[in-house]
Records
---
Amino acid sequence: MFQENATTINEVIAGSPPKADVPMELASQNKDTKMMSKYKNYIAASGTSVNVPPSNPDSNSTEKIDELLEKEKQNMNSEPWNKLDKRLKIQKLHAYAEKYGRDNSLPLKEVKALKTFFSECLTKDKLAKVKDVEYDRDAGAITNIATLCLNVGTRTFTLRNLEKKVSTLKMLTPKKSVSQNDTDI
């Protein structure tokens, strides 16, 4: 009794008709249409208008999507250090670790330790600020990390604090001392 009209709950909610045997061509067109609708907001944001008929996606529009994604990737790499996402920061820090290891002739084990140290520092937000890392936006590479130090005795990496903090007690007004001669009057 229920087998004749077996539709899934998702089909009822979505209001779609029950599934039938779909030929391969139609399935690939539906897949392309779904992909186009997924990136429709990106295309609209870029200012280009793309009219894609649901049955025949245009190869030109997929090229526009690819072009748009490439532009987005380029814009992502040209952002300042603090605006980069964590994945890009880790990639750039690992590339700097390789460069640092080559320049200072460090063994592979210490380069690997430096990479894990950088990953830990990112999770603790120690390398999150612009002043922590000297980053070249044009080249998309880290030029220097001034606070990075290698402890020669233990062969571990640390970040030195280069900022000299002035005590807040020095900024307060001096305390007035009352002499005993003034109170005896």
---
Amino acid sequence: MPRKKKQKKAHNYSNPSEKQDLAHVEAGQHESEEVDEHGFTKRKPISDRECIYKCLDNCISLAGLDKNQVERLAKQFNPNNPDEVDIKSEYPPL
């Protein structure tokens, strides 16, 4: 049977600084934020346009898609675009 090693005693370092009350650093809840049943803050809902933009922005370098086409569509759906761009479609709506 292998021998058991003796555990070393606690280290000999003692922290020279004074203890600090860091309760003020904790993340607090703002009045406008909603909380779910588990206590986590909920994100505010985003618009459909912003949702589509985020999806397109994540897919720019996705294999199998035309990068230029996805960049053009992302530019059209960008919610920060000051010009309201009319979305052009190659196909009629369903």
